[in-house]
Structures are given as structure tokens and as C-alpha cells.
Design goal:
Layout: E1 9-12, H1 16-27, E2 32-35, H2 43-48, E3 51-52, H3 56-62, E4 65-68, H4 73-80, H5 84-87, E5 91-94, H6 100-112, E6 116-123, E7 135-140, H7 142-147, H8 149-155, E8 157-160, H9 167-194, H10 200-215, H11 218-227, H12 237-254, H13 261-273
Parallel strand pairs: 1-2, 1-4, 2-3, 4-5, 5-6, 7-8
Antiparallel strand pairs: 6-7
Helix pairs in contact: 9-10, 12-13
Length: 298
């Protein structure tokens, strides 16, 4: 039986991530055209089999599927506004790091110009693309997602979050929030131990296993948060307050600023002040003003 033809794909933007995406497409056997605002970043891709376009219009004409991986939301408009009419009837996938409202605005822009639009959030570093652990989250056009599932899986695991183009971005930034907050906590700890002669590298070795073990409790914590019932106590807010107060005191003694642990203390203190000290520490989630379960905030 004859093999079905591969999708022709254009990649706009050849930063480190754009290059990694284009390389995965070439390895997957797709006719891949690449374009970048500044020249010279496509040499290895062309040697591997990609085609180089000198203009955005030329690049768009070459691909049935157009993937944008640019600097930010404004850069997507800077690159694509001039070729909006040419994109009509084509499939546009925006893998630029874009805030949820920016993704929704681009979806509306695409609809006005007759462009089918899918937005994506990349949960990977460039070297991870196409490797185990790489994940890309998508929302917007389900038809693009379904029709080109084989393409998305060249990049990593692919998950669809519905027709709201901003949904994948919300999940993307929520995961990044957890990551950055964890790394910030590591930075605070490294500043503390430096005062007793321990290097950040040594502290990193000690932290890696400890933090990995602690993250195993996140599904359980999330399940309790979803119930809204914090009376089953794994660690009480009173206990956590005592621990955080001690960390704050030790940090002050060490001369380490409280930019990172101070807001955490604030969340715990508010819950204890409201009379919830005997309940589970997960209740500090309620200090963040979340919407009710199952009712996204408009």
C-alpha cells in the first residue's frame, strides 16, 4: 500500500526552540521550510534537508501547516500581519510563548482572516524536543490537532485542552509557576547555607533528591484541594506556621532577605489568623482567591 504523503511544514523563527522543532520535522521525513528574521541560523537544518526561505511570504507559500515559534506575542503580529491574506485557508500553529489573552487575541485575528488556529505551550527545553519527557500542550482548533497528531508527536507527547485558545497557555504558565517557585526556594536555601560555608553546588546535590521525594505528594495534595475539605490533616497549618516562622528567623539571622519565604509566610499567617490553624496546610491554597471548582473565572 502506498505511503500517505507527509505534511509540508513551514517553521517561522529559528531561535534555539525553533531550530529544535524544525530538526524534529526533518528527522520525521516532512518537507520542511524554515525562515528566520536574521540570516545564518538555518545552515545545519538546510544541510539536514530543510529548505530555506528568504521571505515570510515564500515560507508561508511552501507549507500547508505553518508553525510560528517567535519571540513574543507582538512578534507574531510583526511577522504574520503582512501575510494574513496568504495564510487564509491554511493551518497556523503558534508555539511562541504567549499569555492566555494573547493566544485568544491571535485566535480571533486568525478567524477574521480565515485562518485555522491552534495554540501551544511547550513544556520542554530545546534539547528535550523529540525526546522522552518533552510535552506540548495545545488548545484552539481541534481539527488541526487531530489532523496532524503525527506531527505533534515528533516534538513530544501531545495533549489537547479544548477550543479556548488560551487554555493551553494557562496550564503552561501554571506549570512554570510551580517550577520557578521551587527554584526560587532552592536559591533561598543556597543563600542560607553559604553562611555556614556550604557551596550552592553541594546544596544542589542535597536538594535534588529531597525535592523529588516531596513532589510525589502533589497528586494527593491536589486531590484534597479539589474536595475543599481540609479537616483530614497531613500537616496542620499551625505546625507549618511554626516551621515557616523558624525559617524566617533563621534567614534573618543569616542576613538573607525574605523576598521568597516572606510571601509564603503571609499565606500561612492569613489562614491561621482566620481560625484554620488545626486544618491541613493545603488550605493555604484558599488564600489565593481561586474560583469555585469547575467554574473557571471569566
Amino acid at each position: 500500500m502506498a505511503e500517505s504523503p507527509r505534511t509540508t511544514v513551514t517553521v517561522l523563527g529559528l531561535g534555539a526552540m525553533g531550530q529544535a522543532l524544525a530538526a524534529a520535522l526533518v528527522r520525521g521525513g516532512h518537507q520542511t521550510t524554515v525562515w528566520n528574521r536574521s540570516p545564518g541560523k538555518d545552515t545545519e537544518l538546510v544541510a539536514a534537508g530543510a529548505k530555506s526561505a528568504t521571505t515570510v511570504a515564500e515560507a508561508v507559500a511552501a507549507g500547508d501547516l505553518v508553525v510560528a515559534c517567535l519571540f513574543d506575542h507582538q512578534s507574531v503580529h510583526d511577522v504574520l500581519d503582512a501575510v494574513a491574506d496568504q495564510l487564509a485557508g491554511r493551518s497556523l500553529v503558534n508555539l511562541t510563548s504567549t499569555q492566555p489573552q494573547g493566544a485568544r487575541e491571535l485566535a480571533e485575528w486568525a478567524q477574521r482572516h480565515g485562518i485555522d488556529y491552534l495554540d501551544g505551550g511547550i513544556i520542554a527545553t530545546p534539547p528535550m524536543i523529540g525526546q522522552p519527557g518533552s510535552s506540548i500542550l495545545y488548545s484552539g482548533s481541534q481539527q488541526i490537532f487531530d489532523d496532524h497528531r503525527e506531527v505533534w508527536e515528533l516534538f513530544g507527547s501531545a495533549e489537547y485542552f479544548g477550543t479556548d485558545a488560551g487554555s493551553a497557555s494557562v496550564v503552561d504558565f501554571a506549570l512554570l509557576a510551580g517550577m520557578y517557585a521551587m527554584f526560587a526556594g532552592f536559591h533561598h536555601g543556597a543563600a542560607m547555607v553559604r553562611t555556614v560555608g556550604i557551596s550552592a553546588a553541594d546544596f544542589g546535590q542535597r536538594s535534588a533528591g529531597w525535592l523529588a521525594a516531596m513532589t510525589a505528594s502533589l497528586p494527593r495534595a491536589g486531590a484534597q484541594i479539589d474536595t475543599g475539605d481540609y479537616t483530614t490533616v497531613f500537616q496542620s497549618l499551625d505546625f507549618t506556621k511554626a516551621a515557616i516562622d523558624a525559617i524566617v528567623s533563621a534567614s534573618r539571622d543569616a542576613g538573607v532577605d525574605l523576598d521568597i519565604v516572606g510571601p509564603l509566610k503571609n499565606l500561612v499567617d492569613r489562614q491561621v489568623a482566620d481560625g484554620y490553624g488545626a486544618e491541613s496546610t493545603e488550605r493555604m491554597f484558599e488564600s489565593l482567591n481561586p474560583p469555585p471548582v469547575g467554574k473557571p473565572r471569566a
